[in-house]
Known about the structure:
Blueprint: H1 3-16, E1 20-22, H2 47-50, E2 60-68, E3 85-94, H3 99-113, E4 121-126, H4 138-147, E5 154-157, H5 159-162, E6 163-165, E7 170-181, E8 200-213, E9 219-232, H6 233-240, H7 253-262, H8 270-288, H9 297-315, H10 323-334, H11 340-343, H12 345-374, H13 381-389, H14 395-404, H15 411-425, H16 429-445, E10 451-452, E11 459-470, E12 473-478, E13 480-481, E14 495-499, E15 504-514, E16 517-523, E17 534-539, H17 541-565, E18 571-576, E19 581-586, H18 593-609, E20 613-619, H19 620-625, E21 639-645, E22 651-654, E23 669-678, E24 681-688, H20 689-710, H21 717-734, H22 747-752, E25 755-757, E26 760-766, H23 772-786, E27 789-797, E28 800-807, H24 809-812, H25 818-828, E29 832-835, E30 839-844, H26 850-865
Parallel strand pairs: 1-2, 4-5, 10-13, 26-27
Antiparallel strand pairs: 2-3, 3-9, 4-7, 6-7, 7-8, 8-9, 11-12, 11-17, 12-16, 14-15, 14-17, 15-16, 18-19, 19-24, 20-21, 21-22, 23-24, 25-26, 27-28, 28-30, 29-30
Helix pairs in contact: 3-4, 7-8, 8-9, 8-10, 8-12, 9-12, 10-12, 13-15, 17-18, 25-26
Amino acid sequence: MTSDEIRESYLSFFERQGHKRLQSASLVPASYDPSVLLTTAGMHPLKPYFQGLETPPAARLTSCQKCFRTPDIDVVGTTTRHLTFFEMLGNFSMGDYFKQGAAEFAWDMSLNGFGFDPEKIWVTVFEGDEELGLGLDEEAVEAWLAIGVPRERIVPCPRSENFWQAGETGPCGPCSELYYDRGLEWGTEDDLPGGENERFLEYWNLVFMQYNQDPVNTLTPLPKKNIDTGLGLNRMALIQQGVDSVFDTDQFVPLMQLGQSLTASGKHDDRALRILADHTRGMTFLIADGVVPSNEDRGYVLRRLMRRAIAQGHRLGFEGEFLTKYVDVVQETMGAAYPELGRERDTILRWAQAEEQGFGRTLETGLIMLEDLLGRGEVSGEDAFKLHDTFGFPIDLTTEIAGEREVPVDIAGYDALMEEQRLRSSAGAGGQERVGARQEVIRQLSEEPTDFTGYEHLEERTTVAGVLEQGGRTFVKLAASPFYAQGGGQVSDEGVILSADGEPRATVSEVLRAGEDQAIALEGVGDGLKAGDTVLARVDRPARTATQANHTATHLLHAALRQTLGTHVRQAGSYVGPDKLRFDFTHGTRLSPEELREVEDQVNAWVLQNDPVRPITTTLDEARELGAMALFGEKYGDVVRMVQIGGGEYSRELCGGTHVRATAEIGVFKIVSEGSSASNVRRIEAVTGPEAVTLLRSHDALIREAAGELRTSPEQVPAKVADLQRALKDAQKAAQSGGGANGAVDVAALANAAEVVEGVKVLTSRVEVGDARALLDATDRVKNAIGDAAIVLGAVTDGKVALVASVAQPLVERGLKAGDLVKVAAEVVGGGGGGRPTLAQAGGRDPEKLDDALAAAAERIRSVLA
């Protein structure tokens, strides 16, 4: 069976057994699950159903889910089965069938779907655990015996192997796993399933979710028993195709062959070829699902994946750029099952090419630094980690080159620092705890979900469904509510709760969301509210109106950016409130003034058209066919709300937020700032309506005030400022006695040239000094003149670039580090360097790019302080 046949055979089988087939969710987890960076299991997108937050579309479900496991990145290539990206087939029961049904389905599919000899199938069951107060899972044993599995092929295994739990507390239950016996040529008579051997290959895990664990090791039965199973498609392909490794299966053979064809001089390295095949596959799917290379969170995972692949290609002697060739093969082999690979092809190729070109320069810098370290006779764990983490130089390459020179590398020290890094970069549990707290509040108030009526009107006569006092706050649940609960970047509504006769009772301070349900946090509760009271819920109209204008403007901004910059632009986060809008989007470079003007003009042109804004309820498939934009990481049901502007020619987005009725209600759109949010992610902040008018008036006032101080007209202010800048530069040059003595820098002029960014003094400037020592001295004297500040000075000496960065300790505590600043600047001038968080130096080979380097450092300062 091919991989495509395995996938379709499995899903079709369960459809015939009454299961609803679901499309794979994104690799970027939905907003309700902030506990993981990437989707790691088939059940992750279904957690709201298992937790009772949402009603499942059917009691029986089946899917083939895209998954990604970050812990296996370093293991890939060293084994026959480990992958980062993989497909997980699963069937799920929400309170319908349980152990007997799950076992029967698995047995039927194994024999009649996959054609297995029943004598080759073994199963494991939970042997029990004293801490949990559970004995052998007799129910599972009986289920398998009833099917006809001999007792000697039912193997009990401990909690570590056969008890599933998502965390220390929460839904959990015993497992039963199916193993395929590959025969004695793969092991011995004494081997058993669940042990460390190659004879028995696990291919299907059945999770019997029947308990809730809270506190730890205390179990209570769940009101509904659920089934969650997982069958690895790639592992099944290994069995079905009779090969020894997943890298010999049909999805991987074309990728392995591509690597062999690109390898110089017939060099053969299975590990390198496997890493390239796996990592380029994972890279392609991550970018298709909206992830872009960066130094944070899932973007860091993607960048690490891509750079490991690039390094392996260089090791094998690949000539020219090659990542895009791998992208083509992944699309050819998997595009039929995953059409997003075709839809996002241009975006995937763009980021693959950009990262490969950028990392080529990084490799060169890393090799220069490594050469210096090798000369010392040892590479410490700290140095190896710095090469990897700061400069993106892979540890594989460090150890390989060091090994050729017989120089030891402190791998233990490196591993310890990497573990600290993993702990820092892993998704924190805080978000999950907050989500759980909201869910619990809403659940305690009432099991019946609130009917949200805020799309239609801003006032609702309704009934209090529940009241809860918790943590010094009062929460109520309304039978029907006009208040929008925070979600999709839009803030929650403000407003008041009135008595039936119109007397004020409480102020709404926050609206909590859990799935499609909500609860309201109150302030100023007078004589108290109680369940059954009739009240009048009233939304703050001016705040909602301003928020709606900003939300529709966000959709227009998204469309204008894609039109101006390209279709690689995707939303990467947003804030929509009554005061402003903030929009993060994927793009690798700063927008030029011309591009910003074009975007702003386009949005205002659409505003002036007064195009209607229509929310349309439709199917997810139809919305996709119409080209509707979806927010990566959001979960959408079969029926979705699509917001269409005009006839949909330029903007259709899946969105649950509130919007204006026509674009002219936005009034005016004004971009306030554009900057970096993260690597390859830009951020625009803008205002609309009255806020925009206020901003424009304040700018007018500032220009008039500046004109008055300069004794010129408002129109002549730029020319007058340019004259002053020229005069300042002339004064600086005149202050250089001989062009390089340590005392020649005009410290006062430099101090006066410092800007204030987010309340912080910032100076990035070129100076004329004779050598690097003089530059360090100048930096020290400027620092004393300015006080607490972020300073980056650069100079050209003897045809080379020297850079010094100084950062005051209070700014280091805000995340600004001198070493990071010189690194950013040095990369532009083709060099490197480092130092302490408060003081660092660097050098470079390209003097013509000094001004660009200083601009890059200034941009990094602004992005950190923002």
